[in-house]
Amino acid sequence: MPKREPQEPIPPSLLPPWRSDARVALQEQARAFARDVVMPIADELDPQKAEMPRSLIDGMAAKGWFGITIPEAHGGLGLGVFEYCLVSEELARAWLSVGSILARGQGLGTQTLDDERRRTLLRKSARGEWIGAIALSEPTAGSDLAGVETRAVREGDEWVLTGTKRWAGFALAADFVEVLARTREPREGEPRSAGLEPFLVVKQPGTFPAGMTGHAIDKIGYHGFLTWQLELDGVRVPEGDRLTGLYGDEGADADSGGFASVQRGLNIARVHTAARAVGVARAALEDTQTYLQEREQFGHPIAEFQALRFALADMAAEVAQARAYWCQVAHLLDAGEPAESESAQVKLVATEMAVRVTNQAMQLHGGNGYTTERRVERYWRDARLTTIFEGTSEIQRRIVSDRLLGR
């Protein structure tokens, strides 16, 4: 029989009620950038465990994507969590870390006590000139952020930070590191998180400030930027760099404690992670769709074998389901709903789906999938991480079950 030409995968487009001309145009722009710019760079640098070039970051900045959720009055696009996740899904389809770097803008590191400085930093963030790292977790405090032990001690007009932080991605290359530290012990009757505040450690990209050192953690995936363990030994932070919140949280109060704002930011981060996981799973699905039509066995394209066709159909259904869910939860967040349980659910559903789909993609590629000659092994490695960062699957299950049954 004649050899069939492989068909181009057809990525899903937005459907009602989420569809609008502006969103479709943004999606198409991000999809083209991911395909034409990000993918070739990822194919070259990921096997080397290398960092993404600054030119790639500048390309995203030129499109305004570091300011998607920043108000237009401050130079941003003035859009919502939905558009932020929409762009991130497309970029993650090419390289997970590029879908992640957008989170280092979006007003991160701008919630200073001085309003004029905050406005200046918001404009820089929107332009991609104020890209940071987040240092929340510690060797003994990851899922349990209330267990943070890094100390912030007041000395005159400064705070002195001492402790160890782990999993601070992009820390060396960043313009700042946002550090969660304890300013005091909880008082009787207060939650364990009382006394935790975020601090802004300003630095020059490519260097650590006085009192901070670090070593890069050797990861099996999620390449594109380095992830650091940081040692803080007397890092000095001016009182003006004690922050009122994270993720551009306008509603935070300086005296109410920064930990609540961290929790609110995590809801957005979890939906963002769901969208990134969908992007990685989509990549595996689309590459497998092409592979099944290219690969021949027993004189036929393996796309003609019913078992493989059905496996691909199951993959497509799972990706579409998770994608529809992140759209729904992003919409809820943009509508002002806290959506804590929904954010945990979509993070759980989408990331576990990504692991299953990329694993199945490896299987359908056969021996070719277990080589670095195909991108599917990259998707498999990166998908595995999505079930861990921004709260493990077990933590998401705890959040959801606590809302259903009480703590």
What's the quick description here?
The protein is α+β, with helices and mostly antiparallel strands and 407 residues long. It has helices at residues 21-45, 54-62, 81-94, 96-101, 115-126, 259-294, 306-334, 340-364, 376-386, 393-405, and strands at residues 132-135, 151-155, 158-169, 176-182, 196-202, 212-216, 227-238, 296-297, 300-301.
Walk me through the structure.
The chain has three domains: 21-113 and 120-126, Acyl-CoA dehydrogenase/oxidase, N-terminal domain (Butyryl-Coa Dehydrogenase, subunit A, domain 1), CATH 1.10.540.10; 132-256, Butyryl-CoA Dehydrogenase, subunit A, domain 2 (Beta Barrel), CATH 2.40.110.10; 261-405, Butyryl-CoA Dehydrogenase, subunit A, domain 3 (Up-down Bundle), CATH 1.20.140. Strand 8 and strand 9 (300-301) form a beta hairpin. Helix content is 44%, strand content 14%. Mean pLDDT is 92; it is low at 247-257. A four-stranded antiparallel beta sheet has the order 2-3-7-6, with no helix packed on it. Strands 1-4-5 form a three-stranded mixed beta sheet, with no helix packed on it. It has helices spanning 21-45, 54-62, 81-94, 96-101, 115-126, 259-294, 306-334, 340-364, 376-386, 393-405, and strands at residues 132-135, 151-155, 158-169, 176-182, 196-202, 212-216, 227-238, 296-297, 300-301. The longest helix has 36 residues, at 259-294. The protein is of the alpha+beta class. The chain is built from ten helices and nine strands. This is (2S)-methylsuccinyl-CoA dehydrogenase. Residues 133-235 form the Acyl-CoA oxidase/dehydrogenase middle domain. InterPro entries: Acyl-CoA_DH_CS, Acyl-CoA_Oxase/DH_mid-dom, Acyl-CoA_Oxase/DH_mid-dom_sf, AcylCo_DH-like_C, AcylCo_DH/oxidase_C, AcylCoA_DH/ox_N, AcylCoA_DH/ox_N_sf, AcylCoA_DH/oxidase_NM_dom_sf.
